[in-house]
């Protein structure tokens, strides 16, 4: 990917490029962010919507490029975001709706799109303390599931989402969309099974694994005594023995009806809201 960006500090205040051609090389690079390889190489990703971009900037995420539709020109909030982008050494592109549709692959695209630098936490950055809950996902495959889990973890007050093994990318367009902005609020870590097992031992947290063969009802676990890592299995094959055997508890959510199992994101939501039930109250809603 070509480096169209300036170094932070090298300000060109007020610079806005107008782009109407789909063949523009900057637009080509932005469109390439739909590929995982290009996201990894550039260390960036795309987020759509003015509110999301404003929230991300407020949370201190670094913006590389702001793209907005001609129709959004002059709107005070868009102008503010554009000024912030330029002040941080980023590019601002004013584009036609056709270009915006092709960048987001949508017929009715959002008026504003931000290209941000990816941010990952390391396992050793996570030091769970009392009342903290973390989610660990074994080889999560589905981008919509991961996005929904990141959003749910944020809403339940969890501290981080840990991706164990080969997982779908939290910075794909589909996942970012499904997080509804929570990708900017929830720390995400990726690690191997061995790294996770070594870290869980020294973390001081209890690991509560979910399994369709679990003998323990998930509502009977004491979630207050220690920080908790809720460990969830892969959508197709469930949790492998190497992870299930290392857990402190292996629990099941009782079911009725014909369904074999719950959807991964739904099961994660059930677990998180039970594990944090004693910590969640309507009085504390923002
Ligand atoms: N065929 C898979 C299996 O045999 O485990 C089904 C996996 S299920 C779609 C995905 C994950 O959601 C499971 O690995 C588990 O972590 C969780 N899950 C779904 N339903 C559950 C239940 N009733 N009790 C406990 N965990 C459940």
TrEMBL record:
Cross-referenced SMART domains: SpoU_sub_bind (SM00967)
Please state every residue range assigned to the domain named RNA 2-O ribose methyltransferase substrate binding: 46-122
**Known SUPFAM superfamilies for this protein?**
alpha/beta knot, L30e-like
What CDD domains does the entry give? SpoU-like_rRNA-MTase
- The record lists the membrane-crossing segments as none
Give the UniProt keywords, A-Z. Methyltransferase, Transferase
Gene Ontology biological-process annotations: methylation
Please provide, alphabetically and separated by semicolons, the GO molecular function terms listed in this UniProt record: methyltransferase activity
Pfam families xrefs: MRM3-like_sub_bind, SpoU_methylase
| Family designation | Belongs to the class IV-like SAM-binding methyltransferase superfamily. RNA methyltransferase TrmH family.
Tell me what this protein is called: RNA methyltransferase
Origin species, per record, is Neorhizobium turbinariae
């Amino acid at each position: 990917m070509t480096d169209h960006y300036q170094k932070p500090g090298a300000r060109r205040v007020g610079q806005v490029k107008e782009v109407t051609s789909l063949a523009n090389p900057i637009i080509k690079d932005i469109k390439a962010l739909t590929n995982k390889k290009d996201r990894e190489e550039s260390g960036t990703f795309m987020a759509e919507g003015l509110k999301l971009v404003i929230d991300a900037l407020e949370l201190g995420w670094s913006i590389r490029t702001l793209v907005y539709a001609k129709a959004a020109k002059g709107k005070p909030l868009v102008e503010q975001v554009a000024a912030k982008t330029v002040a941080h050494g980023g590019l601002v592109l004013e584009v036609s709706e056709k270009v915006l549709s092709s960048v987001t692959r949508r017929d009715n695209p959002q008026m504003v799109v931000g290209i941000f630098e990816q941010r990952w936490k390391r396992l050793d950055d996570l030091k769970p303390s009392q009342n903290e809950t973390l989610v660990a996902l074994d080889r999560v495959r589905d981008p919509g599931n991961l996005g929904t889990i990141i959003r749910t973890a944020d809403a339940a007050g969890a501290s981080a989402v840990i991706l164990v093994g080969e997982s779908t990318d939290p910075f794909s367009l589909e996942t970012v969309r499904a997080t509804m902005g929570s990708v900017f609020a929830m720390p995400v870590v990726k690690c191997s099974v061995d790294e996770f097992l070594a870290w869980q031992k020294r973390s001081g947290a209890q690991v509560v694994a979910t399994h369709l063969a679990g003998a323990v009802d998930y509502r009977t676990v004491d979630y207050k005594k220690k920080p908790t890592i809720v460990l969830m299995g892969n959508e197709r094959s469930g949790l492998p023995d190497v992870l299930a055997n290392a857990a402190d508890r292996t629990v099941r959510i009782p079911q009725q009806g014909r369904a074999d199992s719950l959807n991964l994101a739904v099961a994660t939501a059930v677990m998180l809201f039970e594990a944090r039930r004693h910590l969640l109250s309507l009085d504390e809603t923002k």
